[in-house]
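Structure (tokenized):
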């Protein structure tokens, strides 16, 4: 799914349907492109579980409701000065970080990445 489409939906391009709770709910989606909601007021819950992001999710200085990225994988989550008015769920959340070491220039890209997870008991992993 294109990040541009997700951004437009989260920022209210479509009117909510009466009788339903508005939210973005995605599961097992591959998000292509940059999802940049920096400085935006996101009026809906963002529920993107078990999704794979090709680029960083940017929520700097954004105001959001519930954010659930449980089980999702992304290169970075940027949330400096963000305000989440509901739960922030990041269980089994994965961030891929480049691993730099001598002699990696000829290796395939996938062999130069390490997996880090944020889980309730594990804390952040660092590159």
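Design, position by position:
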């Amino acid at each position: 799914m294109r990040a541009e489409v997700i951004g437009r939906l989260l920022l209210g391009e479509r009117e909510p349907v009466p009788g339903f709770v508005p939210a973005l709910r995605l599961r097992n989606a591959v998000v292509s492109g940059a999802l940049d909601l920096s400085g935006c007021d996101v009026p809906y819950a963002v529920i993107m579980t078990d999704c794979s992001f090709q680029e960083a999710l940017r929520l700097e200085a954004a105001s959001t409701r519930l954010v659930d990225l449980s089980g999702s994988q992304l290169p970075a989550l940027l949330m400096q000065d963000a305000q989440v008015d509901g739960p922030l769920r990041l269980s089994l959340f994965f961030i891929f970080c480049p691993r730099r070491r001598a002699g990696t220039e000829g290796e395939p890209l996938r062999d130069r990445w390490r997996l880090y997870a944020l889980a309730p008991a594990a804390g952040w992993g660092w590159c």
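Reviewer-requested clarification: Residues 107-127 have pLDDT under 50 and may be disordered. The chain is about 5% helix and 35% strand.
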